[in-house]
Design a protein that fits this description.
Strand 1 and strand 2 form a beta hairpin. The termini are far apart. Helices cover about 40% and strands about 15% of the residues. The protein has one domain (about 5-79). It is of the alpha+beta class.
């Protein structure tokens, strides 16, 4: 099963959602590392701290969560 979307589609989604922070498109090998057998839902957001450790995982996207997600990115950048 392929979970990736073409980069242009991802950029379109980001533009529509007003997302301006960096986004990485990864392959299934990386998804396997972070999903650890969980049911797959795309997009899948992994927030990493400066130490490289997972600080938070978020499945899917809802425009109502945009502010909360951006606040999490800012918080992690300040650590």
């Amino acid at each position: 099963m392929t979970l990736s979307a073409p980069p242009k589609m991802v950029q379109f989604f980001m533009d529509q959602a007003g997302i301006t922070y960096p986004v990485f498109i990864v392959g299934e090998d990386v998804l396997d590392e972070y999903y650890a057998g969980e049911r797959v839902r795309v997009p899948f957001n992994v927030f990493l701290g400066r130490d490289g450790k997972v600080a938070k995982k978020e499945k899917g996207y809802d425009s109502r969560l945009k502010k909360e997600m951006e606040e999490e990115v800012v918080r992690l950048l300040k650590e």
